[in-house]
Amino acid sequence: MSKLAIIEIPEPSGGPLALGVGTPTDSQRVPVWLRRGLEASLVWVALLVAWFLAAAYLPLGKNPLIPAPPVVLEALADSLPELWEGTLSSFTILLPGFGLATVLGILSGLAVGTSGRLQDAFLPFARVAAPVPPTVYIPYAIAVLPTFKLSAIFVVFIGAFWPIFQNAVAGAHSLEQRYRDNARILGFTGFEYYRRVVFPAALPHIFSGMAVGLGFSFILLTVAELFGANAGLGRFVQYYADFGDYPRMVAGILYTGAVTFLAMTLLEAARTRALFWVK
Amino acid sequence: MAGGGLQITGVRFAYDGSGVILQGISLDIPAGQFVSLLGASGSGKSTLLRLIAGLQLPQQGSLLWNGTPVLAPGLERGVVFQDYALFPWMTVADNIAVAIGKARPASTKAECREEAEGHLRKVGLDSARRKYPFELSGGMRQRGAIARTLAVGSPLLLMDEPFGAVDPVNRARLQDLLLEIWETSVPRKTIVFVTHDVDEALYVGQRVVILGSVPGRVIADLPVSLAGARERRSLIESEAFRTLRESIAEVLAEDTLAQLAVS
Q: What residues make up the domain containing A8?
């Protein structure tokens, strides 16, 4: 077989090459953005068709587990006011939890990342504590903290804190020797050193940590809401699941996905804006 | 000016857990002198510059700048590194304005900016003042780094292969710009210029100090007495320049051979 391969390889090499010359002129007729757009929409169209077919032909009984797209769309339109209220309620948990995790994660991460002694003291603990799945804190947080809201904020905070902290530490480590030398020569010390040199240098890492942290925040938010909330996005899905109202439930899932996507897109836009100097 | 300038006496330096980098370095550089520091790679020239800057401290010996021991970095000793050390997250003008703010804390933000723009004009960068370092060529970034040390007003400039990564045409321009800055500075700035390019060392320096390798030590200290205006063409073709270049090349070659013999 190997012998055959050796003989065959040089032979057709003229063929594909000649074809390769021909293809660019063909693809130039369709603009790249249009071609990419068409390819991307293919996936959406395929999924939608699969959904229609599944709803129409899968035998799942009287109360179909897979409601057809128009039914879900109607449920979504009906539930929009309720979903909007749920969003507001969820954000009173998400924003304080994620915001606090961002502020404390950056401050402590940069401090630990720039000090050998703080590093020796805290990193061993962080290495043990960070991988604990934050979901396991939920029942205990609900038991210990006075309100459900506070415990949910706490759990979101824990989930977002570790990735932001760890990335801030890595960001502080990534500060190049030449910038440190420069800062020393110019006499940057204390807070000014952190504000002008360490923080901007660590920003690319910090944004990565925030993206991971935001993803975790949404997961923990919705999971916590399944446990005991009386409003919110996760609660909405759980509530209608209990009644077997699958159109509303699927609408809730789609809506939550859209909100998450929007939040991630906003963070990404902020990142692009803040890090235009990274080349 | 008694006690002025840079006095280096019996300096020895080794990084933790590695061999001796510099051994028995003594140099007396009067204020206002332009010294080229030559040597093979690994001869410790950059390390010596870091010691003068105060970024590292010697295990033995002393460094005095204008009679004061060098114990930490300071704004009176400006450094221009080879790898453009302007902060990439600030515009060129901000990089310089921030440095001015550190050198003269009493001045307002607007004053710092205005002064920064004046210095950028001096190095031919005024059109790029709002740009970020990543938008500039290597040569332009080095102009920015030079403008920063000028803006801070450092009387001693330490330059570590500042034009090493710049293309030949811009390199010649930057050498001339540096010479012009030095010749017109009042009082005359002291410059220690590290390079491994013999022609460059001779073209810019009044004096060439050569470091030998492993451990780094002074193996030659030559005055560069090339009379008359520094017109590049005629200078490089002059007999005196060629003689100096050959003797320096010989010293460097001997050092390389000696090192080979050891290893």
A: 2-57
**Which residue of chain B comes nearest to A274, CA vs CA?**
B89
**Tens digits of per-residue pLDDT, A15-63?**
444 444 445 555 567 888 888 888 889 999 999 999 888 888 877 655 5
In this complex, do B85 and A200 lie within 8 Å of one another by their Cβ atoms?
A: no
- The predicted-structure confidence for A200-255, as pLDDT tens digits, reads as follows 999 999 999 999 999 999 999 999 998 877 889 999 999 998 888 999 999 999 99
Please tell me the distance from the alpha carbon of residue A258 to that of residue A235, in angstroms, as a whole number.
16
Query: Which of the 8 DSSP states describes residue B42?
Result: T
User: Are A30 and A87 within one domain?
Assistant: no
Nearest CA-CA distance, residue B16 and chain A, Å: 17
Comparing CA positions, the residue from B59, B56, B54, B55 lying closest to residue B70 is: B54
Contact B49, B77 (CB under 8 A): no
Q: How far is A204 from chain B (nearest CA, A)?
A: 11
CA atoms lying within 13 Å on the CB side of residue B34: 20
Topology of domain B1-76+156-231 in CATH is Rossmann fold (3.40.50)
How is chain B split into domains, by residue range? 1-76+156-231, 89-154
Name the nearest CA neighbour of A76 among A218, A260, A246, A261.
A246
Both A14 and A126 in one domain: the answer is no
Does A279 reach chain B within 8 Å, measured CB to CB?
A: yes
- Do A278 and B83 lie within an 8 Å CB cutoff? no
Residue B102: list chain A partners with CB under 8 A: 186-188
Do residues A14 and A131 both lie within one domain?
no
Average per-residue pLDDT for chain A: 87
Extended beta strands in B149-244, E state: 156-160, 190-194, 207-212, 217-223
Mutate to test the interface with B, among A179, A185, A276 (most CBs of B within 10 A): A185
At residue A112, does pLDDT exceed 60?
yes
How many domains is chain A built from?
2
Residues A140 and A16 in one domain: no
* Residues A137 and A234 occupy one common structural domain: yes
Which of the pair, B111 or A12, is modelled with greater confidence? Answer: B111
d(CA A158, CA B197): 56
Compute chain A's Rg from CA coordinates: 26
Kindly state whether residues A39 and A108 are assigned to the same domain: no
Nearest-CA residue of chain A relative to B105? A187
- Preferred mutation among B87, B91, B154 to probe A, highest tally of A CBs within 10 A: B87
What is the per-residue pLDDT across B30-42, written as a single tens digit (0 to 9) for each?
999 999 999 887 7
Mean pLDDT of A138-158: 92
More confident residue, B256 or A213: A213
A21 part of a folded domain: yes
Task: Tell me the ipTM for this assembly.
Answer: 0.84
Instruction: Compare all CA atoms of chain B with the CA of A276 and give the residue at the minimum distance.
Output: B89
Q: How many residues does chain A have?
A: 279
Contact B73 A185 (CB under 8 A): yes
Percent pLDDT > 70 in chain B is 97
Residues of chain B contacting residue A279, judged by C-beta atoms under 8 Å apart? 88, 134
Closest partner residue to A185 (CB to CB) among B79, B83, B98 is B79
